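hi! just following up on the protien thing from before. the input was this:
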Amino acid sequence: MQKVSLVGARGYTGLETAKLLLTYERRRGGIRFERAYASGGFRLSAELLDSRAEDVRCGNEEELLGDNSDIVFLATPVEVSLRWAPIFAARGQRVIDLSGAFRLKRNSYEEWYGVKHSSPEWLAAAEYGLCPFVGPAKVSTRLIANPGCYATAISMALIPLLRAGIVSTDHLVIDAKSGTTGAGRKASETLLFSEVDEECLPYRTGKHQHWPEIQEAVFDHAGVEIDFHFATHLLPVKTGIVASIYAATITSKVHSIREIEDVYHEAFRNYPLVRSGRQISRLARLQNVRGTPFVHLSYEWIAGKLYLFSCIDNLMKGAASQAIENMNRLLDRAPGEGLIEIV
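and the predicted 3d structure came back as:
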């Protein structure tokens, strides 16, 4: 029985992770969700209106040094994860960090996150947990960097095609849109209802921190370097991401859309959390992924041009449910265990 704790339980991703842990504990077993940490007299049962959460002890940051859980989830800002992840990992606990603090191996944290990385040794040791491409966890794994939401949606779509060598690495254009929960649970003028309603607002154009993360993930799992246009937008919805990817296919390798279908079928034949096909009008609808751990990949191929759409729930596969997948890897369980049952 693995004891589990969650730091940052008050935020959107923290609350979603808490819900999944409660469901996992009840339906699958093997873990005991013991502690949830947040500031300001937080009570998980009151926040979730779920009596199951009454058994989870709630504490504040001052109590973290006394935490003795086997697995610690950090649903915290980068600076908080930088402080606590090395402490937990150094004393033998296994950490799944949902922030960006340990994702980038070859790019500057000062440039992309505005912070100087304070734990280069743990950054080097951290495993980037892009499921299913990362494979089984090592026995020695102490720190898993859970991938970012945009990076997950885009990498899941591109890696199989680039690995198969059927898509050109030149002239890639990615136009991605996210619900407002992707910005976290905080007071901000740009997230006010009157600012986002009836809008589709571009932000961090060409400067989003997931740009280098996507580049590194593609190189690590497909073996190619990509340079690409990347535009991100804020949608007037709470949850969901749809990434529209435009690429050219390699003429000698793609003669029909069947080759693309075959690549995705082979890449995900042992992974139950991807649905792919040409049904763009169904698979690219946010309402069809909202509240699920699935990735929906849909596409059309016309005269050598590929129109590819990747759709996920940013709080689920883009954060909390992928963190559960990474816990399954630590427990040597199938990636979809405890997640398929919630759909």
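Residues 99 and 314 are 13 Å apart (CA to CA).
The chain has eleven helices and 14 strands.
cheers
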